[in-house]
């Protein structure tokens, strides 16, 4: 029998990011889809205290949308859109991932590795609950929006552009700004 294992690229990108940046920890991927709400598990063993610690992660991914036609007037060259989702109590962190073409005008079937970039936002479970509670329609802020979105320019600034009455700076949630907090979750 041939061993076959697949995972979504967004999860793969998060595994690489966490493996590279969080020291003395391993990233596990559930082999079963039965555990709802958990896509990844960070694991650390503290030899001195003889203690095992875990941090659970839920990953959500969006393709990137580029301005075209009427959308060329958009403020940001890249947009991510996510469907509203339920917050699971067993996920410690939510990581939202976007993969984007660094130069969308040069994409073709021979695109090489330096053609793509990735952007990730990290939220604790409580932050994600609060965020989802605030996802409202722009036209009628008393109603929930079924989607939320972000705009960015590739220069490490990102803004919530859909699901809020006014654009909000979300740069503090970029994963590179949250790595210490993710690592502290083992405590």
Defining key terms:
9 strands; 187 residues; single chain; globular; alpha+beta; nine-stranded mixed sheet
Structure description:
The chain has helices spanning 9-21, 125-133, 179-184; strands spanning 26-28, 40-46, 51-65, 78-83, 93-101, 116-124, 147-152, 158-162, 168-169. The mean pLDDT is 86. The chain has 187 residues and is α+β, with helices and mostly antiparallel strands. It contains three helices and nine strands, in the order H-E-E-E-E-E-E-H-E-E-E-H.
What secondary-structure arrangement, pairings included, does this model have?
Layout: H1 9-21, E1 26-28, E2 40-46, E3 51-65, E4 78-83, E5 93-101, E6 116-124, H2 125-133, E7 147-152, E8 158-162, E9 168-169, H3 179-184
Parallel strand pairs: 3-5
Antiparallel strand pairs: 1-2, 2-3, 3-4, 4-7, 5-6, 7-8, 8-9
């Amino acid at each position: 029998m041939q061993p076959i294992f697949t995972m979504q690229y967004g999860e793969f990108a998060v595994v690489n990011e966490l493996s590279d940046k969080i020291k003395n920890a391993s990233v596990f991927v559930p082999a079963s889809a039965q555990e709802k709400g958990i896509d990844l598990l960070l694991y650390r063993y503290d030899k001195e205290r003889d203690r095992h610690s875990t941090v659970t992660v839920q990953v959500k991914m969006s393709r990137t949308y580029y301005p075209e036609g009427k959308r060329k007037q958009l403020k940001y060259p890249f947009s991510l859109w996510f469907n509203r989702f339920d917050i699971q109590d067993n996920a410690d962190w939510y990581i939202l991932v976007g993969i984007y073409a660094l130069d969308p005008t040069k994409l073709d079937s021979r695109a090489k590795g330096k053609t793509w970039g990735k952007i990730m936002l990290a939220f604790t479970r409580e932050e994600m609950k609060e965020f989802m509670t605030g996802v409202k329609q722009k036209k009628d802020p008393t109603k929930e929006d079924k989607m939320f979105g972000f705009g960015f320019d590739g220069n490490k600034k990102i803004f919530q552009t859909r699901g809020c009455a006014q654009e909000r700076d979300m740069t503090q949630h970029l994963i590179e700004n949250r790595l210490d907090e993710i690592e502290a979750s083992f405590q």
